[in-house]
Amino acid sequence: MVLGLRENAAQFALLVAVNALVGGMVGQQQTVLPLLAEAEFGLTGYTFIFTYVAAFGITKAIANYFAGTFSDRYGRKPVLMIGWLFAIPVPLMLIAAPNWWWVVAANVLLGINQGLTWSTTVVMKIDLVGPTRRGLAMGLNEAAGYGAVAVSSLLAGYLAEHHGLRPAPFLLGLAYAALALVLTGLFIRETRDYAHLEAIGHTPRADGRHDHLHAELTNRQIARHTSLTEPALASASHAGLVNNLNFGLSWGLFPLLFATADLTVAQIGLLFALYPGVWGAGQLITGGLSDRIGRKHLITAGMALQAAALALIAISDGFPGWALGTVLLGIGTAMVYPTLLAVIGDVAHPIWRGRAVGIYRVWRDLGYAVGAILGGIVADLMGLHAAVWAAAIISAAAALLVATRMYETHPPRPHAIDCRETVSIRPDTMSWSSRLPSYRVWRR
């Protein structure tokens, strides 16, 4: 058993493919549902329309917590399989929905699916690659997921324009869920033992900053450090919330804002796809870049760029300005998204990394609900452009928080860890402070 991206390329590639299917489940509905709300259900209040985004965000946040806890306790693969089982009813409910509450209920199930599957694929990739290529691994993971969001948004917009809002766009989701269950059940392997291997060679920071973050922390201590007390973990959690606040607001609001300029459904789909498309592709660069130049400044600059992009979208009223704004928003998000996950991997001990990722993603994905509710209320009271301005101001504040509180977490390049034997670990019977004679660890 060997840690490393190249050494585990086949499993890593399978997990990238599975995470693309996770993103596709979201993309199938993002362009279509706001239009469906107005065209078929006669909804006009922005706050009411955004209920499905809020329901998705809250349930995904809760599912993230359980994904992290259960993956540390029971293993990664069972959590991944259960997450995909929750996906099967989603497209069927959207196709058959007789009223808006069916759509909300479908997004509750989608939130559970996304929380369990996306969190678990993140943890599994971190398990496989070890400490040296964490940023690159997260860039590839998030690029696959959000690239699939963009492609599926385009496909759904095309299908909706040529075949109607239902059922054609949602057949994509049904195909994604079926394929993911086959891949996960037959080809994905358990990765928890890789985290245990990394724990054997875990080396504390030379500056002693993480000495209080030992392997025996309780769930409550992990939650407190990740949410409030540990500067890097807490700053990452708060920046993640604001990042997804922007995404949640855009999910519910951008199609309605773009529709005010009498654009076609296909044009709206293109504009909406630009944001996750640039975001997804950009992470192929920014994830690895954070391994070379560090995390903090990339996150600070990315949040500031998101603020500027939202301001541009707010002052624009046509396709050119909105297109440039969504591209810049995608670049800013690409700078932030994989880097925040890499920060969690840098700081969290391998033994409780899954739980730390889960807590971080609770905060981050609550941003969907906060963005949807905030965007809906401000849009109802002051208009669509004002809601975008509000998100721009909050993003600028997040950039300032990271700049002043987060420290650089990217460690010096450690020795690679190699285990030349097949190992079998029983976490319930071992103490991490004890010596494990079944391991041989080489440092190269």
TrEMBL record:
Keyword Membrane: yes
Transmembrane segments: 12-31, 43-67, 79-101, 143-161, 168-188, 253-278, 298-316, 322-345, 366-382, 388-407
Pfam families in UniProt: MFS_1
Top-rank taxon, per record: Bacteria
Entry keywords, A to Z: Cell membrane, Membrane, Transmembrane, Transmembrane helix, Transport
Keyword presence, Mitochondrion: no
Domain called Major facilitator superfamily (MFS) profile: residue spans: 12-410
Chief localisation class: membrane
Membrane topology: Multi-pass membrane protein
Subcellular location: Cell membrane
Entry protein name: MFS transporter
Organism taxonomic ancestry: Bacteria, Bacillati, Actinomycetota, Actinomycetes, Mycobacteriales
